Amino acid sequence: SDLSTESELCYPHLGNSSCRRIVRSHSVSVLLHIILSSISVLTVTLNLLVIISISHFRKLHTPTNFLLLSLAVSDFSVGFVWVFMIFLIDGCWFLGAGWCVFRTVFSYISTAASIGTVVLISVDRYVVVCDPMHYQTKVTKNRANICIVLCWVGSTVFHTVMLKDNIEYPGGFDYCAGGCTVYLPPFAGVIDLIFSFIIPFSIIVVLYVRVFMVAVSQAQAMRSHVTVVTLQSSLKVNRSELKAARALGVVVVVFLLCLTPLYIVLLTTGFGVKNLSSYIFVAGLFYFNSLLNPVIYVFLYPWFRKCVKCVLSLQILKSGSSEANIL
């Protein structure tokens, strides 16, 4: 019996002060490693394709695409968070307290940046659909880039402050050797819930409901042919924008579906995660969203499919390829 308990410890030689391993059958363990590794590799690769495409092709340098670029960077980062998830799969953390803190802070910042970016995407679509006349003047490349930088700096500062205790005392909150425990004081947990979920969620939903209502009323107007000839050109402009709003609407809805379960679990457990497996599942679902975004672009954006071909066939290495008309 001593052997069986020993095999369940992360550090058998430390006896009772060691954390317990999650014991799974070999086949289940291998399968989990394969699944998580595949998600990680795919997330990193597909988002890297988005990053290269938007950065490389001049024609894609629009405010909306810069927001997609920011989302791809945060999703790309989450691809590396998956690697740490793989290390934690057996419930044992062997990389030391420093890496534990890095994993914690890094995953919080990259997920917060993606939440912030989705809010910016909703604002962008709201302005283009609800105030198309002033879109060009209101939403400029510079303004989009400033918002993106603020979003990342804000996420970094916010979570560095929130996770201050973890950063100051690496490993100080682990109950046992081989743990990687995140400590958020209760008030910090509430603040995080408000700023990382309630406020962004409300903004996204309110703006997208407005966008959807305008889209529906425009579609009805087009159907009833009441449109005067002078309206034709403005409606044409909006038709492509409405398509873009619809595509980004899919991104936003999928994002909310992946994000909400995590916060429901955090709320119902009062932020002290009692059931690790349910938490890992909902956190995994939230991180999985980072793989879904580029997959959505593949299906909804012809330009992204063209870019992927150019990147994979190495045509982007040719001189002048950045000027190609990819749209």
Q: What's this model, at a glance?
A:
With 327 residues, the chain is mainly α. The chain is built from 11 helices and no strands.
Description:
- It is a single chain.
- Helix 2 packs antiparallel against helix 3 (63-87), helix 2 packs parallel to helix 10 and helix 4 (96-130) packs parallel to helix 8.
- The chain is 74% helix and 0% strand.
- The chain is built from eleven helices and no strands.
- The relative contact order is 0.13.
- The model is unreliable at 1-6 (pLDDT under 50).
- It is a multi-pass membrane protein.
- Keywords: Cell membrane, G-protein coupled receptor, Membrane, Receptor, Transducer, Transmembrane, Transmembrane helix.
- The chain crosses the membrane at residues 30-54, 66-89, 101-123, 144-163, 193-216, 244-266, 278-300.
Mind summarizing the main beta sheet? none
Q: With helices defined by DSSP (H or I, 4 residues minimum), what is the helix count?
A: 11
Q: Can you name the CATH architecture?
A: Up-down Bundle
Number-wise, the strands total 0
Structural class: mainly alpha
What is the string of SSEs from the N terminus onward? Answer: HHHHHHHHHHH
User: CA-to-CA gap between the ends?
Assistant: 67 Å
Low-pLDDT stretches: 1-6
Q: Keywords for this structure?
A:
single chain, 327 residues, mainly alpha, Rhopdopsin 7-helix transmembrane proteins, 74% helix, globular, transmembrane
What is the topology?
Blueprint: H1 2-7, H2 26-56, H3 63-87, H4 96-130, H5 135-138, H6 141-162, H7 164-168, H8 186-223, H9 229-268, H10 276-300, H11 302-312
Family: Belongs to the G-protein coupled receptor 1 family.
Transmembrane segments: 30-54, 66-89, 101-123, 144-163, 193-216, 244-266, 278-300
InterPro entries: GPCR_Rhodpsn (IPR000276), GPCR_Rhodpsn_7TM (IPR017452), TAAR (IPR050569)
